[in-house]
Specification:
The protein has about 230 residues and is of the alpha+beta class. It folds into 2 domains: about 130 residues, no CATH class; about 80 residues, no CATH class. It is about 50% helix and about 15% strand. Helix 5 runs parallel beside helix 9. The longest helix has 24 residues.
Length: about 230
Amino acid sequence: MRWWVELIGSGFELSILGQLRSTYSIENEGQRWFLVQEESNDIGREEIRTKAQDLLDLLNGALVTTGLPPVKIGDKIGRYQEDGARIQMHLVVLPMSLSVRPTVWTATEEEAYKKSLADSVSERLTLAGEDATVNKVLHMLNTDFLSWTQMYRVYEIVKKDANIIKFGWATDKQLSNFRHHANDPRATGSDSRHGVHNSPDPPGEPLSFTEANTLIRRIASEWVKTKL
């Protein structure tokens, strides 16, 4: 069978994914985009959804580490009939993710930029197939924002493999402040990794949830680059 899942995001990111060549394809019809894949056997709607989400997690991790926002599964999922007609099987309602085109170019410049980004995403997907640790991190980076616990897990994985400070991805002060915020409920409340603080004082410098996400995503992205 051949199944499809509608994707939601900006045409810019989706068109980049559309240039990838694998066992799946990202296809567009007018303003709509679909993740499409062939299966040797018939599978049910829940298995399609699981397969699509697992694949999209990896694709989004590759997008994020290339500096692009993730895309989402839309509200429709189904299969194709033998005549090519699309049949809806299930509704999957997830929030829409929109991004803004980074700048305005000529058509030639835009296509060249898209090709460059598609190559970068493809390199990361190839790497994920060869390196289980990279694969794990890309899956973890699949969403718009990571929780404090998720951020800390990414940090721990990268820290074990590379000297973050030596590479210049962050300073010791920045990392110390991040760890303090992630672990101290006085700073991050119920989202903290710990229920009880272990240090006598709360963090001395503020670090917002968004700033922490930016820091960890930058560290992870730079780490992935060293693997390419």
